[in-house]
């Protein structure tokens, strides 16, 4: 463990704030393990699935049966993925298996508005989009950034930017 390392003299036995915070998060997560194990056992006992299980199963099926992706690509000429910053890894795999490999896909998202981290979503899916959904020629997907907010007036943005 990091906290078992000898202290750095200049730090006077203190850790960097980020390391201490990470250790606290790690300890809190470790305390959740028994709860998660009981939850998984209860789902198995009752033959139930939750949202994360559904996303994982769908991703596994899409990866295992490429004809499903082919059928969906035939059905949808273009795809728009809105609020993409709230996409989990399982959802990313599902969408990539269904619509990757050069199919016309546009993702819209704002990394500053990612709110579903508690269920596995990550704004990192935005940065992964260019790699996971390449153009038909294999090049990375195009990235266009909107630097002007058309949703909020200048006075609202001024307040928000001060926070």
Task: Give your account of this protein's structure.
50% of the residues lie in helices and 4% in strands. It is built from 6 helices and 2 strands. The chain has 2 domains: 2-45, no CATH class; 51-132, 3-Layer(aba) Sandwich (Rossmann fold). Helix 4 links the parallel strand 1 (79-81) and strand 2 (105-107). Helix 2 crosses helix 3 (66-75) and helix 2 (51-64) packs parallel to helix 4. The protein has a two-stranded parallel ribbon. The longest helix has 29 residues, at 17-45. The chain has helices at residues 17-45, 51-64, 66-75, 89-99, 124-132, 154-162, and strands at 79-81, 105-107. It has 163 residues and is mainly α.
Architecture blueprint of SSEs:
Blueprint: H1 17-45, H2 51-64, H3 66-75, E1 79-81, H4 89-99, E2 105-107, H5 124-132, H6 154-162
Parallel strand pairs: 1-2
Helix pairs in contact: 2-3, 2-4
Strand content: under 5%
Widest sheet: strand ordering:
1-2
Find the structural class using helix and strand composition: mainly alpha
* Element order: H for helix, E for strand: HHHEHEHH
In which range does the helix fraction lie? 40-55%
Number of E-type strands? 2
CATH superfamily of the largest domain: P-loop containing nucleotide triphosphate hydrolases
> Helical segment tally?
6
Low-confidence stretches: none
Report the CATH C-level class of the largest domain.
Alpha Beta
Please tell me the total number of domains.
Answer: 2
Span between N and C termini? 36 Å
Arithmetic mean pLDDT: 87
What do we call the CATH topology of the largest domain? Rossmann fold
Under the CATH scheme, the architecture of the largest domain is 3-Layer(aba) Sandwich
What's the Cα radius of gyration?
21 Å
């Amino acid at each position: 463990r990091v906290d078992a390392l000898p202290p750095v003299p200049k730090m006077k036995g203190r850790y960097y704030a980020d390391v201490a915070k990470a250790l606290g998060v790690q300890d809190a997560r470790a305390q959740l393990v028994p709860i998660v194990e009981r939850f998984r056992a209860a789902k198995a006992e009752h033959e139930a699935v939750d949202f994360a299980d559904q996303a994982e199963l769908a991703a596994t099926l899409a990866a295992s049966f490429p004809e499903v992706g082919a059928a969906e690509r035939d059905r949808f000429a273009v795809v728009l993925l809105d609020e993409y910053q709230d996409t989990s890894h399982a959802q990313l795999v599902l969408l990539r298996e269904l619509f990757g490999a050069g199919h016309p896909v546009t993702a819209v998202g704002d990394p500053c508005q990612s709110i579903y981290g508690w269920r596995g979503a990550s704004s990192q899916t935005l940065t992964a989009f260019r790699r996971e959904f390449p153009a038909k020629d294999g090049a990375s997907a195009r990235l266009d950034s909107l630097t002007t907010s058309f949703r909020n007036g200048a006075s609202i943005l001024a307040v928000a930017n001060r926070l």
